[in-house]
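chain below, 423 aa
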Amino acid sequence: MSSDQYIIEGARTPVATARWYQLFIGVVCMMAISSPQYVWTLFTGPLTNKLGVSLAQVQITFSLLIILQTFFSPVQGYLVDRFGIRLLVGLGCTLSGLSWVLASQASSLSMLYLSYGVVGGLGTGIVYVGIVGLMVRWFPDRRGFAAGAVAAGYGMGAMLTTFPISNSLQSAGMEQTMMTFGLVLGVVGLAASRFLRQPPALLRDAAVAQTPQTVSDVAPREMLKTPVFWLMFAMFTMMSTSGLMVTSQMASFAKDFGMTTVMVMGMAALPLALTIDRVCNGLTRPLFGWISDRFGRENTMAFAFLFEGVAMTLWLLTINNPVLFVLLSGVVFLGWGEIFSLFPSTLTDTFGTRHATTNYGFLYMAQGIGAVFGGPVAALLHQYTSSWYPVFAVAISFDIVTALLAFFVLKRMRMNWLAAHAL
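prediction:
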């Protein structure tokens, strides 16, 4: 019996049970690597003060994190398939935790870039691509929901650390905070990774309502030649830019709008908003994944992307109201986080499951481009215009354009592709 087959007490666990167990473990692994991205905004102020540099220079760290997380995704996906899910995800969780330990000792921008950006990006990328690729194989009948559930772990994981990290920054300082949380999160992720397994070659268990694959498997080399892939890539890039602008810049524009010194319901507005954001950013992924399983990928994309554009517009118009700042920030993330369930499920629906991990690795590279535009480029646009309004205008425009592309272009293009490549 293969070591990748799932065994409990000497007996093979029914797939119907095993896959839900694997989904839970995958969520834990994703939660362990989420904080480097989603609490980054809390570190930007202390880092600019410590290193004596500008916000745009510090934000390069965030871009490096996402670029390394995404641009090496095809290689990371191949390594996961080649050397096994447990080994690679365990390594990724370790690198993610180690990046904070090293960053806590950084005394220059180059050291910060190397530790938080490069080491952290490589580690989180291995885990993210590996877990998503694993889940679309375990759940052929609920692909959108499964991809959304583990992506929710990534989106919501920082919910558990936002207030503790914010409080620790106040009481213990940045160095001790990074050191402590880096060690804890690295150990948790490494321990969880030891329980991951690949699904059996065929999901034969009668309890699994498997939907047979209806499209031929397309290898990465051939996929990269198709217009439908590059349309999805462009759409992913625009949506990533919009969301990552908010993720990376939130503490900065909250300070400019006077939201870092106010209280809402007896709590500081910024960490409260970030906590609510993590909840909404997580819930939206399985929610819209589930909706797309039933009402179509492109229809769901069009609604969700337009929803975010409207929410971001309302947020900008009411940004000086502390209560609405907190509440609408959550609504904005409710309309953004679903890209991490809709795009991988749409891609696998289109190009098959055999190369799902590596194929998604290529698409996930769009997140890296979005990090450049949403991070340092957005910071530079603010610096040169002395206003956040042009930055928001670009992000809102991307949301609306991508919604229109999903409904009017991608829907027809995929329909033609599937008709030509059906089994």
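The chain has one domain: 14-198+213-421. The first helix runs from residue 15 to 32.
thats it, cya
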